[in-house]
Design brief:
Elements lengths: L1 E4 L7 H16 L3 E4 L6 H10 L1 E4 L10 E4 L6 H9 L3 E4 L3 H15 L3 E5 L5 H8 L6 E3 L2 H5 L6 E6 L5 H14 L2 E4 L5 H16 L2 E5 L5 H13 L3 E4 L7 H4 L4 E6 L5 H13 L5 E4 L4 H6 L31 H12 L8 E10 L2 E5 L6 E3 L12 H4 L5 E8 L7 E4 L1 H15 L5 E5 L2 E3 L2 E6 L2 E6 L18 E10 L4 E5 L1 H16 L7 E10 L2 E5 L4 E5 H4 L16 E10 L4 E5 L11 H4 L5 E10 L2 E7 L2 E6 L20 E10 L4 E5 L1 H4 L46
Parallel strand pairs: 1-12, 1-13, 2-3, 2-4, 4-5, 6-7, 6-8, 8-9, 10-11, 10-12, 16-18, 22-24, 27-29, 32-34
Antiparallel strand pairs: 14-15, 14-17, 15-16, 17-18, 19-23, 20-21, 21-22, 23-24, 25-26, 25-28, 26-27, 28-29, 30-31, 30-33, 31-32, 33-34
Helix pairs in contact: 4-5, 8-9
The chain binds FE3-S4 cluster.
Length: 722
């Protein structure tokens, strides 16, 4: 006897997910309530009940604050409301294909369509779908019933997921001719259709068919019906114990198919029993068209054994060109896309479904609800669940673990807050705020660090205000940096430590400038001499002694007065912290030459001086630094001269006689002629009898009239440049 096992046998995607959801919940809490049998398979139900599951018929049977699983059939919206009122935590295992129908009909109703459901009125799935139509959908099972429906403006047809395709088409045909505005959405599940197609094809070539599944499952009943039409030896088995051994002792081919509610272990048990009974079975793998296998939403069914020899390359059929999907397959594929897959680190929106103590349960659309433990509620350690959310609130969470070891999806609200803080902190960096990072790694062109989850790159040229030979020396060091570029979307930052160092140095210098003020006396050390003055360190900052402030005299070069390294007592003339300039004076702390000129230079004194400058009306003679007298042209020689230069050159050192001293006007009149005249020719007089009226006939012009001042000979402070 040969055995062919259907390729699509066993749990469909939705059932498998629902059973897993119950199993997962049982690992974390007991009991777990299930609203209606989780599947139409007593064996599976018994097994789950033995582990702590309790099947109930209504929400009112579920104690408050318990956990309840909604099976793959789904429920009407009022069930969710009842659960909320009773503070029951829902684990929603509604099959995504069914949930999709809920969305479709809800939208159709909102858009003013009369919804018609092709399905069994009493089936929980149809009851659930009708609930999303406000319980106003029309429900039909046959084309005749569709014919008898009342009139309506716009009619929208959907189907129970396990409805028979052929019947759906018949109903659609009737309605399309009956209603002027008609639309349909074939919502029959591909998993069901695949099983039905397979049952049809297999039963045509088998001598007997075994359909494994619950007798109350409409799915199983439909499969058996399809098989019976082709093969009168069709048997429904709920377990291996029901195997009709006596009827199978024939030398033919037996086909085995199983409904979507049948677990794999149940199928294996039946095959094992057949072997035990010495039915001499050889299990053949059923061949399934490639496109059907592709459309299968669940894992490929495990092949028990195969006798078929592997095909050679030559025997293999040519690869079929990619074909267009049918609307149903597109629908299924779309649904596949909507199925929630989660991974750690993912941020998802969810709805708070229950709060137990400080644990918040959130529906994130996954097969199991997520839990936010108190420690993950908020960055504020004192925050309670009530501070964070209420039941029904939409909340954004991060998935920490898909399974925390107890079957829970571990969520965090705290990490969302941290992410928000990180985002704000990174945005602030665009304003030039400094931030600290620890350098983690040296790469070719710089070093890498991390800040608030963003990658920070510091180019080698921006690492220091000096050349860095070895980047590795910075690894592990904490440094303060400033962002040069911030890419918020990619969370990347290019930063500079060099700018920070430079800016801090400038800031520190400016602070130092604030310590000084005009008039203050300070000590300084000459650091550098230029043509226009001497830069002098007065304690961390340099000030300039302009050449005119080095001496009351007129030095030709600052080096005539000071040398590098000289320690000086200075007076601050002015401070400009912004431009970082301090003007210093050496001469300000030295006696002014005119202060004692009247005492040191008396009329009639014979003194020496250096010709400093020659003017048309006479020669200015420097008697001592900063103290000048004028030898009028008439007093330059003993003879009459046309030009001063006929007798004198600049820098000549000459002997002169003091004719007059006026400290107020800062004028000293000198005469060279009086010194050159023979003693006998000189008028004999003492200082007291000096009479200006008796002087030769010239009038000494005042210096001011010559419109020449000392300042004209020196550059001003503002004229110098560093
Ligand atoms: Fe869902 Fe289809 Fe199974 S609708 S429960 S995958 S039969």
């Amino acid at each position: 006897m040969k055995l062919i096992q259907g390729k699509y046998n066993g749990f469909c995607f939705g059932v498998k997910s629902a059973v897993e959801a119950v199993e997962t919940e049982l690992t974390r809490t007991k009991p777990v309530y299930i609203l209606g049998p989780i599947i139409h398979n007593q064996g599976v139900v018994d097994k789950l009940e033995a582990e702590g599951a309790i099947t109930v018929e209504s929400v009112m049977q579920v104690p408050e604050s318990s956990t309840m699983v909604i099976r793959s059939h789904g429920v009407p919206p009022e069930v969710y409301d009842q659960c909320r009122q009773r503070n029951i935590r829902i684990v929603d295992a509604t099959c995504p294909f069914v949930a999709r129908i809920h969305d479709i009909v809800q939208k159709a109703c909102c858009d003013g369509w009369q919804v018609v459901i092709a399905g069994q009125k009493e089936h929980p799935e149809v009851i659930g779908i009708n609930g999303f139509c406000g319980n106003k959908a029309w429900i039909v099972q046959t084309a005749e019933q569709a014919e008898a429906l009342p009139g309506a403006e716009r009619v929208f047809l959907v189907a129970q997921t396990t409805f028979v395709q052929e019947k759906f088409e018949q109903i659609a045909f009737v309605m399309a001719t009956k209603y002027p505005s008609f639309r349909k959405q074939n919502t029959i599940c591909q998993a069901t259709r695949q099983r039905q197609t397979e049952a049809y094809e297999l039963s045509q070539k088998c001598d007997a068919m075994i359909v494994i599944g619950g007798r109350h499952s409409s799915n199983t009943k439909k499969l058996a019906q399809i098989c019976k039409n082709n093969c009168k030896n069709t048997y429904i088995l709920e377990s291996s114990a029901e195997l009709p051994v006596e009827n199978l002792e024939l030398n033919g081919i037996i086909g085995i198919i199983a409904g979507a509610s049948t677990p794999q272990w149940s199928i294996r048990e039946v095959i094992a029993r057949m072997n035990e009974q010495d039915l001499n079975t050889t299990v053949l793998e059923e061949q399934v068209p490639a496109e059907q296998a592709q459309a299968q939403p669940e894992e490929a069914v495990e092949a028990v054994q195969t006798e078929a020899a592997p095909q050679t390359e030559a025997e293999k059929p040519a690869e079929e060109p990619e074909r267009e999907l049918t609307p149903e397959e597109s629908f299924e594929r779309d649904l596949e896309k909507t199925m929630v897959r989660i991974r750690p680190g993912q941020v998802k929106k969810g709805t708070v479904v229950q709060i137990v103590g400080d644990d918040v349960f959130v529906n994130i659309g996954y097969k199991a609800d997520g839990i936010i433990p108190q420690a993950e509620l908020s960055l504020d350690p004192k925050a309670t669940a009530a501070d964070i959310a209420s039941v029904g609130d939409e909340i954004t969470v991060e998935i920490v673990k898909v399974n925390d070891g107890e079957g829970n999806v571990l969520l965090s609200r705290k990490s969302i807050e941290r992410r928000e803080q990180d985002r704000a902190a990174i945005a602030e960096l665009e304003d030039g705020r400094y931030f600290d990072v620890t350098i983690k790694q040296a790469v070719k062109a710089g070093v890498l660090a991390e800040y608030r989850g963003a990658r920070v790159f510091i180019p080698a040229s921006q690492l220091s205000n000096r050349y860095v030979e070895n980047l590795e020396e910075f690894v592990g060091k904490k440094v303060t940096v400033k962002a040069l570029e911030v890419d918020k979307s990619r969370r990347r930052i290019v930063a500079s430590r060099r700018q920070v160092l430079q800016e801090e140095a400038i800031k520190a210098r400016k602070e130092k400038y604030k310590q000084f003020e005009a008039g203050q006396h300070v000590k300084g050390i000459v650091r550098r001499i230029t043509d226009f003055g001497a830069f002098t360190d007065i304690g961390g900052v340099d000030g300039l002694i302009h050449v005119t402030d080095l001496s009351w005299g007129r030095p030709k070069h600052p080096s005539d007065i000071v040398s590098v390294g000289d320690e000086l007592e200075l007076e601050i003339l002015s401070v400009n912290a912004e431009t970082e300039r301090i003007a210093l004076s050496l001469k300000a702390l030295q006696p002014k030459p005119w202060d004692h000129a009247a005492e040191r230079y008396l009329v009639g004194d014979i003194v020496e001086g250096r010709v400093d400058r020659i003017a048309p009306f006479g020669a200015f003679v420097e008697l001592e630094p900063g103290l000048f007298g004028l030898v009028h042209i008439s007093q330059v020689a003993t003879r009459r001269i046309d030009k001063v230069e006929d007798e004198l050159r600049v820098d000549d050192v000459i002997t002169v006689k003091v004719l007059d001293v006026d400290p107020e006007a800062k004028r000293i009149s000198l005469s060279r002629r009086a010194v050159l005249q023979p003693e006998r020719e000189r008028p004999q007089r003492n200082h007291d009898s000096y009479d200006e009226d008796r002087e030769p006939s010239y009038k000494l012009p005042p210096i001011e009239e010559a419109k020449v001042t000392l300042a004209d000979f020196f550059p001003k402070m503002d004229d110098f440049e560093d």
